[in-house]
Design a protein that fits this description.
It is flat, with a radius of gyration of 17 Å. The protein has a two-stranded parallel ribbon with strand order 1-2. With about 100 residues, it is of the alpha+beta class. The chain has helices at about 5-10, 15-20, 35-45, 80-95, and strands at about 25-30, 50-55.
Length: about 100
């Protein structure tokens, strides 16, 4: 997501993995919200002898209902009430995982 809309509509960088691979990089894509996948990807080179690129696919504002994938939050600062609501949602998710 960019400030004016989804990257693919404003200034597409797709397919970014193939662009890096064409210059000799070893590329791995992971779910950027999956800590185990990130830890695994960061723990070892994608391919020995090549520079590595890890693409962490994420959703902007993930986990906060009124922020998730909402373009207006690209540059908006939450009010105190919005911040408290966001933190309550994130805390509830952490509690559910425990």
């Amino acid at each position: 997501m960019q400030i004016t809309g989804p990257t693919k509509e404003v200034c597409s960088n797709h397919p970014i993995d193939l662009k890096f691979e064409s210059f000799g990089w070893a590329v791995k894509s992971v779910d950027g919200h999956d800590y185990d996948a990130l830890t695994d990807a960061l723990s070892r080179p994608v391919e020995a002898g090549k520079p590595s690129l890890i693409i962490a696919n994420t959703i902007k504002g993930k986990g906060v209902s009124f922020i998730e994938n909402n373009i207006k939050w690209h540059h908006k600062v939450p009010t105190d009430q919005e911040f408290e609501g966001a933190m309550a949602e994130l805390d509830a998710q952490l509690t559910a995982l425990s």
